[in-house]
Write a structure and sequence with these properties.
The protein is α/β, with parallel strands linked by helices and 126 residues long. It has 2 helices and 8 strands, in the order βαββββαβββ. Helices cover 19% and strands 37% of the residues. The longest helix is centred in the middle third of the chain and has 13 residues.
């Protein structure tokens, strides 16, 4: 089994677009699809995608408690770059970049929240 995509909810597409246009290229994400006013999506090196959209039920987007996509990075430097880009765009720190030996001897990761409060990790496991 593999995960094909992750959907990230937002209440402000323009603001989210600015955030993710800065963050996802740092880890190899390329804007792949853009439906103005509806959604946009990035494709990553491994073929998976991240979509950003307003919720289909027309309710406010809310960060899911306990949900967190982890975005694989090619190196610790990519982790650092994505983390820095997220904070530069107004994201908040949920765990600075560094080794995470509890998850394995070679795991290096960082954790952030986007402008809507969605938590995500950037992770490298050599």
């Amino acid at each position: 089994m593999s995960i094909e995509y992750v959907m990230i909810g937002t209440n402000d597409l323009d603001r989210a677009r600015q955030f993710y246009d800065a963050v996802f290229p740092a880890i190899g994400g390329v804007l792949d699809v853009d439906y103005p006013g509806m959604t946009f999506g990035y494709k990553f090196r491994n073929g998976t995608r991240a979509w950003v959209a307003r919720p289909n039920d027309q309710q406010s987007a809310r960060a899911a408690n306990g949900s967190m996509p982890g975005f694989g990075c090619a190196s610790p430097g990519e982790v650092d770059a994505a983390y820095a880009a997220a904070l530069a765009q107004g994201g908040t720190c949920e765990g600075q970049p560094g080794p995470r030996p509890i998850y394995g001897p070679n795991v290096y990761a960082a954790y952030v929240r986007d402008l809507d409060g969605n938590k995500m990790s950037f992770i490298h496991d050599a």
